[in-house]
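Agenda item 2: magnesium ion complex prediction
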Amino acid sequence: MKNISSKQLVSVGLLLFAIFVAAPLIIGATGRWDFYFTLTSVALLAIASAGVWLTFYIGRINIGQGAFALIGAYVSAILVVKSGVSFWISLPAAGIFAAIVAIVIGLPILRLRGVYFAMITLVLTQVVTLTALALPITNGAKGISSIPLPSGVSLFGIPIIPDFAAMESTKLAFYYTACILMIATYAALYRLVNSRLGHLCRSMQQNEELASSIGVNISYIRMVIFAISSFFGGIGGAMFGSIAQSVYPSSFQVADSVNFMLNCFLGGLGYVFGPMLGTLVLYFGWDLLFELGKYQLLVYSIILIAVIRFLPNGLLSVRIGKGASK
Amino acid sequence: MSALLQVKNVTKKYGGLTANNNISFDVSENEILSVIGPNGAGKSTLFKMISSFTPTTSGEVLYHGERISNLKPHIVARKGIVRTFQETTIFKSMTVRESVIVAQHLRAKASLAGYFWGTKTAKEDVAAFGIYADELLEFLGMSSISSELAHNLPQGNLRALGVAIGLATAPKVLLLDEPFAGMNHDETMQMVDLVRSVRDERGVTVLLVEHDMPAVMNISDRIVVLNFGEKIAEGSPSEIQNNEKVIEAYLGSVDDEIGM
Ligand SMILES: Nc1ncnc2c1ncn2[C@@H]1O[C@H](COP(=O)(O)OP(=O)(O)OP(=O)(O)O)[C@@H](O)[C@H]1O
Ligand SMILES: [Mg+2]
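Presented output:
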C-alpha cells in the first residue's frame, strides 16, 4: 500500500491528461464552452465530497458538508467585499474558519455515533442557512452579491496568478483553478490516509476500545479529521461563491449535503478517489436524465438505490474487483 | 520499598451490584501477580479500573504514587499501563504485522503532521516500527503468521495477537485478562513461558487474570483472590492453595479446580 504501483501512476497520468489536455481540446473542437462550468462544478463538489469521505473514514456519516461550504462561501465573500482582502487569502481563511467551526461543533457531537451523528449533521445545514438569514454581516436574505473576481497575485513583481477581472472569459481560469485545487485535495487525502493519521483512523474504526488501550486519543483524532473534512467544505464553498460572484443563504441546501454524502457512497467508501468518481457520475447522471422531465428524480433515485444495493462498495469496486483482489 | 502500583480501597458499584468492594493490594516492580476468583468475582472490573476504562466508585489506583484511576484509557496507556481484553479484541482488517505496527503509536517521535509531510524523524519512526514489529513477532513465535489478516486467525493465535498488540506499546505494566483462554495445554505452557520472558527480558510488570489454575500456580509470584467482589486472600501460590477461604470459595463453584 505504501509504494505507488505503476497501475496507479497510469491512472493518475490519465486523469491529468483528461483534465488538462483532453477536456480543453474537446471543448475547443465542439464549441461547448458551457462545459467548462459543468466540469468546474464537478471539481469543486468533489473537493467538498472528499471531506465527507474523510468523516466516513472515522466511522461517521456526515450529512452536513453543505453547512461548511456555506460558511466558507460567506467568509470568503465577506473578506473580499467588506474587508477588501484578496480572494487568494480569503480562500484558505474560509477553509480555516470552517475548520474552527467544526472543532467547536465537533466537541459535543463527535461522541455521537451512527444515525445520531448523521441526524445532527443533517440539521446543521439548515442551522447555518437560518444563521445567515439572521445575521447583519451576511446581509440576510439578500445575501452578498457583486463579489469582485479574484485579483492578480504577483511575487517580487513576477505575476503568479493573473487578474481574473482583466480576462475576456473567466471560464478557463476557474476551470484550471478548480482542477488544481481538486488534485491538491485528493493528493493530500491519499497522503493522509496512508500516513500515521490514516492508520490511527483505521484502528479506531475497527476497534475503538483496543485503539484507546494502545494510547490513541480517539476524541482528538476525530476532531482533527472533522476539522480537515470541514476545511475542504469551506474551500469548495468559497470557490463556488467566487465563481457565482454571489452568496445567498440558499446557496447550499440540505439537498447538497445529501449529495455530497451520496457521491461518497456511489464512488466507494473504501477508495480515496471514490468520491471524485462519484461526484462526476452523479452530476452527469442527473443532467442526462433531464429529458425525463417530472420523472427525472424518480428514475435517478431508483438507479441510485440499485447501485448502492448491488455495488455496496461503490463504483470503484468494479474495477478493483477485476484486477488484484487487494 | 514502595510499591510500583497500589490499589487503594477501590470500590465499583453498578447500580445495586457491588462488583468490587474496598479492594487493596500492592504490586511491586517486575512482579507477576495474578488475580483469580470464580466467574463474576470482579476480576475484569478491577482491571478496567486500573486501566481507567471505567471510573472507580470510590478509592484510587496509584502508579509511582501518582493517581491513574478515573482518567482516560489513552492517558494511562501513555504512562505505560496497558491492558488486554478478555473477549477477542483485534483490528480485524489489519494483518498481524500491521496491528503490531499501529500499536507502536506511543513510541512515535514525529508528530502526525510530520508523518503527513514525510519528515526525517517520521521516516526513522516508520523504519523503527517495522524493525520492532518483526523483532516482537519473532520473540512471540508469530513470524510465520505476520501477514495474515487478523480475522482469519484461529482462536489461539487471536489471544497471542492481543498480547502482541499490548506488548508493542512497550508497556511498563501489562494487564492480561485471561490470555490462556481457549488454548490447549501445550499452547498454554508456551504462553506461560512467554509471559515469564516478557517479565524477565523486557522488565515488564505483569498482572494476570486467569482461570487456568495450574498455569497460574506455575507463573505467579503472588496471587490475589476475589470472591463476590471481595478480596478474600493474598499470598504466594502455596499459601493460596492451602487457604481455607479460597478452597471454600472454589468448592462452592468449581470442584477441585484449585488443586494442582
Ligand atoms: N458494565 C457493567 N454493568 C453492570 N454490571 C456489570 C458490568 N460489568 C460487569 N458487571 C457485573 O459485575 C460483576 C463482576 O464482573 P467481572 O466481569 O468483573 O467478573 P470477572 O471476575 O471478570 O468474571 P469472569 O471470570 O466471568 O470474567 C458481574 O456480576 C457482572 O455481571
Ligand atoms: Mg472477566
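Discussion summary: Chain B has two domains: 1-80+172-260, 92-170.
Owner for follow-up: CH.
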